[in-house]
């Protein structure tokens, strides 16, 4: 096919779409089902209605080929685990008795059975459920979900393409099951898994699938020759099948690198590649391997992870270059639109001109279809769209929102000494112990406590004008009083004020910093039914006035025990926001760090002796390619130290991190120079404690003993056993006892019971320690 005919054949598609619905209908239905207010049949009806609505919206927008199978009640990797029959032994009876209940048991656990481990989906804030595989795992195909959803779309008269997690990525994301031999690698199960995929592909073809997309984002990471050989074998074997649809192998989030020639020569009919700035090297690499003759190329030129409008002319230039490199070039976002909110038109509080700088999922589908039209028919067919796009880009570039000379001057004046504590840790820790006088194995929580219905109602009433600010603040004070009283009675050593005044750990601060925009309906799935509204970091950042000092001081006035000041760190403020793309991220991080530094210093001046600066996103933002990591870690750790470097030696700095693989950033954790770090560890059975010990981490640490992502209440003995495991890696004088994370999403009954058990566990294990 010539470049001209390839252009004429250009179509628009997406890899996936937000699941929740415009008013988070899916979240409400699932949580209603968990509480017994919604039947399983009613939940299924809601889900089917949302799928139909999504597909129809895509088709109406001009998307020629809609995705199926990307919809999920909880997580698409968990759906894949069900599809291939890799149900952990402890969940088999529940799944057999009631597949839906068993599905949610794997995701959330029950009082008697632990859930699957959860961790971040590559370098995003989406969490997936980690498959557990062992040498005795027996796979069995279950394509019911994938086939049913394909048939739903086809029944609407749509062209549909099922989307599956690819077999290589599935195995590379898995972990050895409990009891698996040391050194077991799930990828060794590939030959056992491929026949299951073959069966699913055959079922989908029989149901009417012309194409099936197999997502292999794990191949954009550094891969060993053996792993690349496995990928080549997988697609050689799947490509050789006779009873299958055409195969589109998709990668995203970064450049494909050494995996590109492997997939380019595989006997599959198409590749989907990311061509946004993060993966721009794919363009030259594709040319270097001779392109994709006689294959379909789906070009991800619209950023599926950020919310800024696309530069249509730049994307058309990229697409024009690609025309000579494939038999057919289609236009898409760089990844699933799961990672962005649904629709900008729901936003009423953002100035209309600024709103034109933004593109959520529906606006991105319009960009995709515009680009496909321009590629197929020429730029003359989209003259008006190009003119409007140029105006929007110019408006943003010239806006005073984006540049504050005072912020830039302050950032330019930063010296290396600003990012260093006045004394090394060995000297600081003695001063802190003398000042705080805490016991061995001190107990604390991560920060937030349950947000009650009364509190949410009060916040809604304040927004709606039904109560005034004074009435709302009285409600917040009552919550803080209850949280402090509960912690004292339970016996916790370092208290928190519970964050009753906060809507979200990033949004709360973003709303008080200049340079940020807040959305009202910009919900994005983080995990399961947990949705967040990432703020938009649009310009230079500064802090007009203190943000947390008043409430922390009020909590401290209620108790003689130390109350932690709670802040969100600069890297997480970037990672969990939609960040400006018009300057290096390190520059933006420095601006945020300086604003937070002012808050840290004000907390200390007000008498706060323990200050926690959370950085749960430090690992998730780690570049996927090893070569790109040193530069990122340099500015990320500098930003944290700049935030905390101005306090006295006897002020104790804590930080916290969420589910992630920490082994490859332990040195960076060390470089933060925090006095205490708390990490999620309950589901991974203290793996992070062993990683810290292997590194020789010299500071204090609190690997979590209570999994806050599950409603189950761990027993005191269960928490004590985890604590004993932690003590085998970290000495008692440096070990803290805490939950995995904040308790905002938990209910009060389970919180009370779990924290009581946590304190009992700490006292029990403390009593087992040898006398000093």
What does this structure look like?
- With 772 residues, this protein is α/β, with parallel strands linked by helices.
- Strand 9 (270-274), helix 12 (281-288) and strand 10 (292-302) form a beta-alpha-beta unit.
- It is globular.
- The N and C termini lie far apart (80 Å).
- The mean pLDDT is 95.
- Catalyzes the transfer of a methyl group from 5-methyltetrahydrofolate to homocysteine resulting in methionine formation.
- 5-methyltetrahydropteroyltri-L-glutamate binds at residues 24-27, 120, 576, 620.
- Keywords: Amino-acid biosynthesis, Metal-binding, Methionine biosynthesis, Methyltransferase, Repeat, Transferase, Zinc.
Explain briefly what this protein structure is.
This protein has 772 residues and is α/β, with parallel strands linked by helices.
Query: Class by helix and strand content?
Result: alpha/beta
Report the end-to-end length measured between terminal Cα atoms. Answer: 80 Å
Radius of gyration: 26 Å
Percent in helix:
40-55%
Strand order of the largest sheet: 1-5-7-8-9-10-11
Which stretches of 5+ consecutive residues score pLDDT under 50?
none
Please indicate the percent range of residues in DSSP E strands (runs of 2 or more): 5-15%
* Arithmetic mean pLDDT: 95
Largest pleated sheet: 7 strands, parallel
Number of strands: 21
- Tally of contiguous helical segments: 29
Shape: globular
Domain Cobalamin-independent methionine synthase MetE N-terminal: 13-323
Keywords: Amino-acid biosynthesis, Metal-binding, Methionine biosynthesis, Methyltransferase, Repeat, Transferase, Zinc
Active site: 709
Catalytic activity: 5-methyltetrahydropteroyltri-L-glutamate + L-homocysteine = tetrahydropteroyltri-L-glutamate + L-methionine
């Amino acid at each position: 096919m010539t470049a001209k005919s390839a252009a004429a054949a250009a179509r628009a598609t997406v890899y996936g779409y937000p699941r929740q619905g415009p008013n988070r209908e899916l979240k409400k239905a699932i949580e209603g089902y968990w509480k017994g207010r919604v039947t399983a049949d009613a939940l299924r009806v809601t889900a089917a209605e949302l799928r139909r609505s999504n597909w129809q919206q895509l088709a109406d927008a001009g998307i020629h080929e809609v995705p199926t199978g990307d919809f999920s009640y909880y997580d698409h990797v968990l759906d894949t685990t069900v599809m291939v029959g890799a149900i952990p032994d402890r969940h088999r009876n529940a799944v057999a008795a009631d597949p839906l209940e068993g599905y949610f048991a794997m995701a959330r656990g029950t009082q008697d059975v632990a859930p699957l481990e959860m961790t971040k989906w590559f370098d995003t804030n989406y969490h997936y459920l980690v498959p557990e595989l062992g040498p005795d795992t027996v796979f069995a195909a279950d394509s019911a979900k994938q086939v049913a959803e394909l048939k739903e779309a086809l029944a609407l008269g749509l062209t549909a393409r099922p989307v599956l997690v690819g077999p290589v990525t599935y195995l590379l994301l898995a972990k050895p099951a409990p009891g698996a031999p040391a050194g077991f690698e799930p990828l060794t199960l590939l030959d056992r898994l491929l026949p299951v995929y073959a069966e699913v592909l055959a079922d989908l073809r029989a149901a009417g699938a012309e194409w099936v997309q197999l997502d292999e984002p794990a191949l954009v990471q550094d891969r060993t020759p053996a792993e690349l050989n496995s990928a080549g074998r997988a697609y050689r074997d799947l490509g050789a099948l006779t009873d299958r649809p055409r195969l589109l192998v998709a990668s995203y989030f970064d450049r494909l690198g050494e995996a590109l020639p492997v997939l380019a020569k595989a006997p599959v009919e198409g590749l989907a590649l990311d061509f946004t700035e993060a993966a721009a090297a794919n363009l030259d690499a594709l040319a270097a391997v001779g392109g994709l003759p006689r294959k379909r190329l789906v070009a991800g030129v619209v950023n599926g992870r950020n919310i800024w409008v696309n530069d249509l002319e730049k994307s058309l230039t990229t697409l024009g270059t690609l025309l000579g490199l494939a038999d057919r070039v289609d236009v898409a976002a760089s990844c699933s639109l799961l990672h962005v909110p649904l629709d900008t038109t729901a936003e009423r509080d953002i100035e209309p001109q600024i709103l034109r700088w933004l593109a959520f999922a529906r606006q991105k589908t319009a960009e995709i279809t515009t680009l496909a039209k321009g590629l197929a028919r020429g730029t003359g067919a989209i003259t008006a769209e190009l003119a409007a796009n140029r105006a929007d880009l110019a408006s943003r570039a010239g806006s005073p929102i984006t540049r504050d000379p005072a912020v830039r001057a302050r950032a330019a004046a930063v010296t290396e000494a600003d990012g260093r504590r006045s004394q090394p840790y060995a000297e600081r820790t003695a001063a802190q112990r003398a000042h705080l006088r805490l016991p061995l194995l001190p107990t604390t929580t991560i920060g937030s406590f349950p947000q009650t219905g009364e509190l949410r109602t009060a916040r809604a009433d304040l927004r709606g004008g039904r109560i005034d600010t004074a009435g709302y603040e009285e409600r917040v004070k009552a919550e803080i009083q209850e949280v402090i009283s509960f912690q004292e009675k339970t016996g916790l050593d370092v208290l928190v004020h519970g964050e009753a005044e906060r809507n979200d750990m990033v949004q709360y601060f973003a709303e008080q910093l200049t340079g940020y925009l807040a959305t009202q309906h910009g919900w994005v799935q983080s995990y399961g039914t947990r949705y967040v509204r990432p703020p938009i970091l649009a310009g230079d950042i500064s802090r007009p006035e203190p943000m947390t000092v008043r409430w922390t001081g009020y909590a401290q006035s209620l108790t003689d025990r130390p109350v932690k000041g709670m802040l969100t760190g600069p890297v997480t403020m970037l990672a969990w926001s939609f960040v400006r793309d018009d300057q290096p991220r390190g520059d933006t991080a420095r601006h945020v760090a300086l604003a937070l530094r002012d808050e840290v210093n004000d907390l200390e001046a007000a008498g706060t002796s323990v200050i926690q600066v959370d950085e749960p996103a430090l690992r998730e933002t780690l570049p996927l390619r090893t070569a790109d990591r040193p530069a990122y870690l340099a500015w990320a750790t500098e930003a944290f130290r700049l935030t905390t470097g101005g306090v006295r030696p006897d002020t104790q700095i804590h930080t916290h991190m969420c589910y992630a693989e920490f082994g490859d950033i332990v040195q960076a954790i060390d470089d933060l120079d925090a006095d205490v770090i708390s990490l999620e560890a309950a589901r991974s059975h203290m793996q992070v404690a062993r990683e810290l010990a292997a590194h020789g981490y010299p500071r204090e640490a609190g690997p979590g003993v209570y999994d806050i992502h599950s409603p189950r209440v761990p027993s005191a003995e269960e928490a004590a056993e985890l604590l004993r495991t932690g003590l085998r890696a970290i000495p008692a004088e440096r070990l803290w006892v805490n939950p995995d994370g904040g308790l905002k999403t938990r209910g009060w009954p389970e919180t009370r019971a779990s924290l009581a058990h946590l304190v009992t566990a700490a006292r029990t294990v403390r009593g087992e320690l040898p006398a000093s």
